[in-house]
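Appendix B. One record, verbatim.
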Amino acid sequence: MGEGKPKLRVLLAAPRGFCAGVERAIRIVEAALARFGAPVYVRHAIVHNPFVVGRLHAQGAVFVEDLADVPVGAHVVFSAHGVPRAVPAAAAARGLVQHDATCPLVSKVHREAEALHARGRHILLIGHAGHPEVVGTMGQLPEGAVTLVETVAMARALAVADPDRLAFLTQTTLSVDDAAAIVAILRARFPAIAGPRREDICYATTNRQAAVKAIAPEADLVLVIGSAQSSNSLRLVEVATRAGAGRAALLACAADLDWTLLDGVATLGLSAGASSPESLVEETLARLAARYVLAIEERCVTREDIVFKLPATLAP
């Protein structure tokens, strides 16, 4: 066994994969299907992973982008990323039965935005334009109440009407280091700016980035299993590169593995974004084991034990 196969050291980052918010969102769709039967409609991908979406679709979930595609009176689930205020209002107007799978940590940012706005603060939201979480957060407040800041350059060039009445919030899935750099500039330029009492970047994003930083300096290549639509997965690739990995790349699934990527690789780092199931990691390791003799070392930076409850509409 293994004769003739080259050796490959694999550093497996931990934590990796599903976070509590993703697990809750999936459970919400499954619980709605079990209780009310198919079809259950889901506005937007419940999480940004096509394998998760495909599995739920096979169980009877129907994914839509427009509530107009949901029959009157049907059950609809809002994705983990959150939605603007106008979406639940539109669902109510159509007589839809709503189940909110917004991650509680995203909902926390929504409540922070409301509180800061009520105190007369103009909000600078650090995040990526067009991401559904950003669209949802900005959509909690009247148009013009939030200004999006995507980069350090934007933070440096930003012009504001009243520098004494500002506040900042962040998308939950940003690079911790990038967000910190932008916040530092905003604080230096606007000393009176208010911020969240607790960090907006979620525990899962922070932990997964820390785990990748722990393996990157020893890795010739870091592979991050995740979708190209997943913000937290893309950030892990960036973090790996900056933390000293020889190279880093996103991998959708084991079948997409390009073997030329492993040319000259003696040590491989492996992680997975927060919306990627552990089964994709296992499939990747199995595919690697068919070609290499693997020496797997798991590097754990922390243990996670957070669990979020189902919404009242689906509570047991």
